[in-house]
Design brief:
The protein has 336 residues and is α/β, with parallel strands linked by helices. It has helices at residues 11-17, 35-46, 77-86, 88-108, 138-154, 185-190, 193-201, 226-236, 251-254, 259-269, 280-289, 296-304, 314-317, 321-331; strands at 24-27, 54-57, 59-61, 64-65, 113-114, 160-164, 206-209, 242-247, 273-275. It has a single domain, classed as TIM Barrel (Alpha-Beta Barrel), CATH 3.20.20.300. The chain is globular.
Length: 336
Amino acid sequence: MLDIAGTTLTETDRVRLKHPLVGGVILFARNYESPAQLSELTAAIHALRDPPLLVATDQEGGRVQRFRDGFTRLPSMGLLGEIQEKNSCLAYQLAQQTGYILAAELKACGVDLSFTPVLDLDYGQSSVIGDRAFHRSPQIVADLARALITGLQSAGMLAVGKHFPGHGAIRADTHVETATDLRDYTNIAREDLVPFRQMIDAGLAGIMTAHVVYPAIDSNPAGFSSEWLQNILRRDLGFDGCVFSDDLGMQAARNYGSIIYRAERALQAGCTMVLVCNDPDSADELLDSLHWKSSAADKTRVERMRGQQTPYSMSQLHELEQFIQAAEAVSGIGSA
């Protein structure tokens, strides 16, 4: 899965995205001007290949919302966790409505999926996670995530839980530094794995890995670890969905060799699809030199992530009574 530079496809983009190793595109804020422009861009991306490339983004809510003007303001998941402490029924309703709004707007503009929900726990010390997490309690995270996923699915979008096996207990930001979690497996399983385990049992379709090293379990970061991805995630937790690496261009991944080596390690460890973002030179190097053939099972897993098509344009969606009521409730979360 690669990124693109601007709000329209260049000829360089088209050539790169037609490469047989490419299976998807991730969009960022720089790729967005308006719902109409986004719809044209996703249509152009989808038209490049058959079956179409998967189009994804990070539209979590709060400080991680790539598309804003013309889209409903989404709350941080931490705000839903705060509401849950006072009124659990209201929190679950709002989480479900948030998931519906999030997915319905993206789907109306041709985006197939958002890398959401965050299933990390808020230990109160991770600047990169923080209020992106629902709560400190594993069970509250699981319950609110289940409600959000129900909302996503009601609009035809499947969910990607992240960052497996849990990123919330460390201070380091893997975008810019190496991250190590010294806890043992028993501690991690008792806390951080609870939301993942429960969402997997509920049919979670996708998981994104963490560029975090858990040396008590494996000397490799989780996204490069067959112990984490094949033995624990696939075998022990029974996950049969799509495993996405986090961006292989992040500093915590760069420490592990060339882009070719990183991609090979992630794929061999058990990732279904690897992300290479904000580094076109590395993307081209990877496409020129990587020798990898996805299995039929992995191709099916990726195709499944497309979810269902929507019958609504953005303007039609914004006229639906169900949407209007949900948007009013969601946009009011956190308002004074």
